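Table S5 (text form). Sequence records supplied for joint modeling of the two-component complex.
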Amino acid sequence: MRFGADEPLMMDSGIALAPWQIAYQTYGTLNAERSNAVLICHALTGDQHVANDNPVTGKPGWWLTMVGPGRPVDTNRFFVICANVIGGCMGTTGPASTDPATGQPYALDFPVVTIRDMVRAQAALIDRLGIETLFCVIGGSMGGMQVLQWAASYSHRVFAALPIATAARHSAQNIAFHEVGRQAVMADPDWRGGRYLLEGTRPSKGLAVARMGAHITYLSEMALHRKFGRNFQDRAAPTFSFDADFQIESYLRYQGISFVERFDANSYLYVTRAMDYFDLAAEHGGSLAKAFKGSTTRFCVISFTSDWLFPTSDSRAIVHALNAAAASVGFVEVESDKGHDAFLLEEPEMFAAARGFIDAAARVRGIA
Amino acid sequence: MTTSSLALPATDLATGHRLDFLLVADMVEPGSRVLDVGCGDGALLSLLRDRKNVDGRGIEISREGVNACLSKGLPVIQGDADTDLADYPDDTFDYVILSQTIQATRQPRVVLEHLLRIGRRAIVSFPNFGHWRVRVDLALKGRMPVTENLPYSWYDTPNIHFCTIRDFVELCREVGAQMEKAVALNAGGKPMQVSLPWWVWNLLGDQGVFLLKRK
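The corresponding structure-token record, covering 583 residues in total, follows.
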């Protein structure tokens, strides 16, 4: 969806971005009442291909366990929309897009993006699609931040909200991890001050290291131990070198290498920055409850026991604020040893909670 | 193992609703805001929603219970009465209900004080440990009672703070709660005569149900 020079995206940085575009996928059919639209918000390195094969990687959609025919977000019942975030690199305007002022990629001239900017862009898309009220907004991690922002900024347009494994503000520890990742990208000589596209290089090593570090934070000690332990990779003994002796090293290297094939390094800087800046309470005088004051949205918050990146205490803070705002909120902490990534994996308890919440909300909303 | 000194929760044959739930529902004004602490699978909250048009919320410690509630469309959060009530602002609800749960809390007095702070009124129901069958188990058999309603042995029971109806009345005095209504249910789940003296309730009452208000 394209927005021309007369329809700029007004960003938190004060910049009016124009022209701009947002890439999205839809599944299912919008009903006559236009009441069955579900918006899926993707996480940091996700994209709009939530339930179809990814055209870049050829891999299946990233949330097929949650979205599809007969799934909790049943595409036979709901009209599902998923859009690439602003600042991303899968078709929505971002730092790799061409700056109309120069005819060259924006690179670091692209304005810094916030979670609220992402949500504004999605709202513009929803407007264009002729949808007044979303039946449900769903997302995990950074997607969950967008869900919370939607509920705070456009309360009247969100019937139900399902934020998963997320927080109303990014913690100091998480900002720290992001900064390490960004520094890894910027330390790569091929980054060229962000102008690598112009200069024909790619900061692949830096971005891969960033991904390797970040990937550890998505797992848990228990999951790593269960999956890899101290097992050697294709060898019986240490080689007394810095080769990838251990399976976990080999695994992380693979994660890093495969990531750089599908993700733009500058986008990684921008999107991590958006998460760092997220602090929903700060927009409301430091009170998270005020962000949800008078909200008629039905909320269901889900966290995972082994998620140390977005621990249950973050979700509880959201729940307390919603309670203080007298909002309708359900909350469940799912027992899992898979860490933060659990929300993307096979977690029957999460599906049961999501399905129960969505079905009950659909009954109230009168969706067949 | 002795069983059946206290019967399973009695139900209304016509509707299948638990009689103690129906009694609690009678105490709640229509259209009010209610928090059910320890709401289980949401049976009481559904009853209140459907019969009294109540805006109901719940706290439940078990994941299975929370999921059952979510699928009924009830906004229930996974939590613990002992730790999570402190997070609710004053006067958030018209009624806070603690149904058959106070005996399982670590700090019944603190919990009761929170109920009276969060809600304008509190409704508390609990199994009466002063019931004559319980007394018989202790006095004659010399054993902690194990019943159908409370089927745990002393070493694995979640019910760590049993009290009698008289004990609870005393606690209400101590925390300055005003008793607006007090009902004892017999083993059949029927309310006992109001005119009976406390000691009779304490001996024959299977459950106590109290409607309390801050003084």
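Note: Residues 24-83+133-169+279-365 of chain A form a domain with the Rossmann fold fold (CATH 3.40.50.1820).
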